[in-house]
Structure formats: C-alpha cells, structure tokens
C-alpha cells in the first residue's frame, strides 16, 4: 500500500483531485489508479486529476488526467484550480507562468479564490451550417440551441462525440443559448464521457463563437450549471482570437490522505 496526500478543488463545479508532485513522489501513479481515484463511488470522485510538477523554466508544470485515467489535453478550469493550489503551496507571488500540454500559460490571482487564466490564441474556427468546431487547448464542437435547459446533453453530446468523424479521437460537445449580453453553456466532456457542471476550454470556445462580427475586445459573461465565468478576448480577424482569458472562481473543497495499492 502507498499513501497519497491529496487536495480536492472545484471551479464552477468542475472538480479535480490535485497532488503536489514537485519532488516526483507520485510518478508511480498508473492510469488505472488515476481512474480509481476519480471514481465517484469507489474513489475520491472527480472530473480529472492533476499533478503540480516542477519546471526549470516556469513556476510549475501542469499534468492533467481525464477521469478515465488517460492523460488529457488542456483543461481550463483545471488550470485555474491548479494555479489556486500552487498559490496555496506558496509557489510564486500571485502572477504565474506555467507550462501545460498545449504550451505556456500565464495566470493571475485576485484574492485567494479567483483565477484569471490566459488561454492559447485561436487562429482557426470551422463554421458549418449548424455548428462551430475549434481547438482552445482541447477540441470543441459548439452548437447553439433555443433551450439549453431542455437539451439532453448526455444523449445528444454522446451522438456527436462518437459519430463517424470524431469517434477515434473524440471531441467535447457544447450546447449554447444566448441570454441578455452573455451565454449559458452545457458541455459533454470526452474522457469523463458525461456532462460536467462546467468546462473551461468549452466555455472559452463557446464565448469566441458568440462574438460579434466586428474586430474588437469582448468580455462575455458565461453561465454554467456550476456557476458564473467570464471570457475576455480580442477578436483580431474573421476567425482569429488573441489575448484570451478565462476568469472565475477556483476553491479548495477538502484535503486528505488515502492508501492505495
């Protein structure tokens, strides 16, 4: 048996198991063990697991696993939660530069529980007759609907995620409804293979596709099942976006110790 010290964080209901791995003390974790830790009935329960790793060139490195145990692509809410965790661990001074699977990121803390995370620039958006498809660190299919609350996100999202085009690699699927000056977003996440309360890269993708036709600076309020986020960005061309920031809460839920085989 091996003992782990873990922290459970959530960002608008998107929840994660986090461990401080700066000394490499959890390099032995297997995909199967990650899956067991994320299991909501037999483990801690989470949408994903992250390791805070040491980096020679940045404040820290982010390693992210989906709930199925496989290493994942970029997770926006996970990145925000990991920044909040690094802050708790005494890393940095509230302004961060870290490296993730999709490249370098910047982040800032406002207080102890609000994180502003700079996402990757987006220079290509596929626009079909009823959808958008783009990569904001993870691939996202975005579909605007009339009533997002009435949408069967699990069934409809699963159909798209496993259709002929996406079945091999998968995609996240977002259903979006405009309201007032913002949007409501619900997301089916690959790797979790279910709807989550929030998805940071999905919220970002939805906000970018919601922007008007003008090249301008946008600040889009986004409602999710788990709470409120904001996406700020500059639209620099018809389908190009830069200076993209995902902003919202990231809070510690609990911490503990667990023995695993």
TrEMBL record:
It is an enzyme of class 5 (isomerase). Substrate binds at residues 14, 66, 76-77, 172, 189-190, 200-201. Keywords: Amino-acid biosynthesis, Cytoplasm, Isomerase, Lysine biosynthesis. The gene is dapF. The keyword Transferase does not apply. It holds the Pfam family DAP_epimerase. InterPro entries: DAP_epimerase_DapF. Pathway: Amino-acid biosynthesis; L-lysine biosynthesis via DAP pathway; DL-2,6-diaminopimelate from LL-2,6-diaminopimelate: step 1/1. Homodimer. One of its GO terms (cellular component) is cytosol. The lineage of its organism: Bacteria, Pseudomonadati, Bacteroidota, Chitinophagia, Chitinophagales. It comes from Chitinophaga jiangningensis. One of its GO terms (biological process) is lysine biosynthetic process via diaminopimelate. Its EC number is 5.1.1.7. The record marks 140, 189 as: Could be important to modulate the pK values of the two catalytic cysteine residues. One of its GO terms (molecular function) is diaminopimelate epimerase activity. This is Diaminopimelate epimerase. It catalyses: (2S,6S)-2,6-diaminopimelate = meso-2,6-diaminopimelate.
């Amino acid at each position: 048996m091996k003992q782990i010290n873990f922290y459970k964080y959530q960002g608008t209901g998107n929840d994660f198991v986090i461990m401080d791995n700066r000394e490499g003390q959890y390099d032995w974790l297997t995909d199967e063990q990650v899956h067991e830790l994320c299991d909501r009935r037999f483990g801690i329960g989470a949408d994903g697991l992250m390791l805070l790793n040491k980096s020679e060139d940045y404040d820290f490195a982010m390693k992210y696993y989906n709930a199925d145990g496989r290493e994942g692509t970029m997770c926006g809410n996970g990145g925000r939660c990991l920044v909040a965790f690094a802050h708790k661990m005494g890393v940095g001074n509230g302004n961060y530069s870290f490296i993730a699977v999709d490249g370098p990121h910047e982040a800032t803390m406002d207080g102890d529980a609000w994180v502003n995370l700079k996402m990757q620039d987006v220079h290509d958006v596929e626009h079909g007759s009823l959808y958008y498809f783009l990569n904001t660190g993870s691939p996202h299919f975005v579909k605007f609907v009339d009533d997002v609350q009435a949408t069967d996100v699990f069934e409809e999202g699963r159909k798209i995620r496993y259709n002929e085009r996406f079945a091999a690699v998968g995609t996240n699927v977002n259903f979006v409804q405009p309201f007032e000056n913002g949007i409501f977003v619900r997301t089916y996440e690959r790797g979790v293979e279910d709807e989550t309360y929030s998805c940071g890269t999905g919220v970002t993708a939805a906000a970018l596709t919601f922007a008007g036709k003008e090249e301008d600076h946008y600040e889009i309020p986004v409602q999710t099942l788990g709470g409120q986020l904001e996406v700020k960005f500059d639209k620099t061309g018809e389908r190009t976006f830069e200076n993209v920031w995902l902003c919202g809460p990231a809070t510690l839920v609990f911490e503990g110790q667990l023995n695993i085989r």
